[in-house]
Amino acid sequence: MKSVLLSIRPEYVRKILNGTKRYEFRRSIFKDRARVEKIYIYSTAPVKKIVASFCIDEIIEDQPEELWNKCQFFSGIDKNAFFAYFKDKEKGFAIKIKNLDPFETPVDPKNVIPDFTPPQSFRYVNIDL
After folding, report:
1. Which has the closest alpha carbon to 68: 87, 83, 57?
2. How far is residue 18 CA from its own chain's centroid?
3. Mind listing the pLDDT tens digit for each residue in 31-45?
4. What angle do CA 55, 15, 5 make, to 5 degrees?
5. N or C: which end of the chain has fewer CB within 10 A?
6. CA distance 42 to 129
7. How many CB atoms lie within 10 A of CB 33?
8. Within 10 A of 79 (CB to CB), how many other CB atoms are there?
9. 75-115 pLDDT, tens digit each
């Protein structure tokens, strides 16, 4: 099984941690998604730490309009920002979060990932936190 590190802005990380955002939206998704067991949340600047992990409940692949219809109440994002994010995309992905595990002490990725650079969207990682 594989793990993935997702870069997520702090405002959305807070919503994931407080339960108002139960879906993480992506314009593209990791290729080997059937083998991805755990997702780590990297909170981007100014936090710059791995703050939690979760398992994938399901990944919904659909047109943005359908994703919004299915996920809007737990999207953690307003409608305008959602559609701006998916502008010019025919399809998108919603990763449904389950078994969220917030870390008591956020982890500096440089301590667990050699030659760490923040992923633009995601990267495969071989860590167990």
Report:
1. 83
2. 15
3. 887 789 899 999 999
4. 40
5. N
6. 13
7. 14
8. 10
9. 999 999 999 999 999 999 999 999 999 999 999 999 999 88
Q: What was the pLDDT predicted at 1?
A: 74
- Give CA–CA dist 39/123, Å, rounded: 10
User: Which run of H or E residues covers position 43?
Assistant: strand 36-43
Cβ atoms < 10 Å from Cβ of 101: 12
- Residue 105, classed as helix, strand or coil, is strand
Q: Sketch the domain layout of the chain as residue ranges.
A: 2-125
Fold for the domain defined by 2-125: 2.30.130
pTM exceeding 0.90: yes
